[in-house]
Amino acid sequence: MRRNTPIVLLSVGHACVDVYQGCVAALVPYFIAERAYSLAVASGIVLAASLLSSVAQPVFGVLTDRWAMPWLLPVSTLLGGVGIALSGLSGSYPLTLAFVALSGIGVAAYHPESARVARIAARGSHRAMGWFSTGGTIGFALAPLMVAAVMSGGTLRWTPLLVLPALAGAAMCLPVVRALQERQAADGPGTTPPPGSDDVASFVKLSLAVVFRSIAFIGLSTFISLYVRQRLGGGTVTGTAALTVLYLGSTVGSVLGGSLASRWDRVTVARRSYLVAAVAVAGVVWVPGPAVYLFVALTSAGLYVPFSLQVTLGQDYLPSRVGTASGITLGLTVSIGGLASPAVGALADATSLRTALAPLVLMPVLSWLFFRTLPEPGVPRAVLTDDAVRSGSGAVKPG
Question: Fewest 10 Å CB contacts: which of 161, 269, 312, 332?
Answer without folding.
Answer: 161
